[in-house]
Amino acid sequence: MSFLAEVGICPEGVKDMIESLPWLTRILGALALVGVAALISRHQKVGLGKEMLTAVIRAFVQLIAIGYVLEFIFAARGPYWILLIVTIMVAIAGYTAGQRGRGVPRSTVVATAAVSCGALFTIGMLLGLQVFPYQPRYIIPIAGMIVGNAMVVCGLVMGRLRDDIKLQKPQIEAALALGATEQQAVAGQLKRAMAAGMTPIVDNTKTVGLISLPGAMTGMILAGAPALEAVQVQIIVMYMLIGAAAVSGLTAAYLTYRQFFTRAHQLVTLIDRDASG
Questions:
Q1: pLDDT score of 276
Q2: 187-207 helix and 136-167 helix, angle to the nearest 10 degrees
Q3: Per-residue pLDDT reduced to its tens digit, 3-18
Q4: Which residues have C-beta within 8 Å of that of residue 5, sequence separation ≥ 6?
Q5: Core-most of 46, 102, 185, 267, by most CB within 10 Å?
Q6: What is the DSSP string of 131-164?
Q7: pTM, to two decimals
Q8: What is the per-residue pLDDT across 199-234, written as a single tens digit (0 to 9) for each?
Q9: How far apart (Å, rounded) are the C-alpha atoms in residues 79 and 271?
Q10: Helices 187-207, 227-258: inter-axial angle, 10-degree rounding
């Protein structure tokens, strides 16, 4: 018999106690952990206290705001609202990934195009195969996961390709001088960039359920959904994220390398990453 049972508290009673707490009280309880992180940062002189405070405030405001927006959209059930929200997601993700790809000419345009391709392809496949219905309650959360994952992959691919081309410029120019095409000259760099972007999601998929429970599955279980139902949804999510990562990463790699060549097939002078975007 557990300690809780010995003192007369059953699991159902604990659940009722938690659910009876005001939501703000729960948030303040979780905020104590952020306080611990801030104390560690200050004690170790890491210098992240201000950034932590900014991140916590932004997360609170942004999530509360998007909660009210989603409530409105779910009630409205208009298909155009889905397009608007997804477009905003893609625009922000493209800008963020473009900042990670500084040094790549027109990095924001490249990143936005790559994220868009991954999102459109993946969402289109899910709708075409009738995995999810075209309803805001399904498409918006799914699109958020797809776009967020594509953003990370694009940033990794663009950054790795930029650095490799910069470091191996003499080898690339030598290959071009010997008659190689642009794509042939950077073939090795393209492969390494794609691997850098895809490896995290592949490793995460291999260890899912063994090291940690993924977000979608955890959220459903905490919301009271049956565990097996949550597992089924999480499997779909993991598979779709791999597809989105592959399409976005491939698009980002091929659009990125083209930015480093002129129409005369010459390697352009690389732009400093802090001065581009």
A1: 43
A2: 140
A3: 334 434 445 554 555 5
A4: none
A5: 185
A6: SS-S-HHHHHHHHHHHHHHHHHHHHHHHHHHHHH
A7: 0.77
A8: 998 988 888 877 777 878 888 888 788 888 888 888
A9: 42
A10: 170
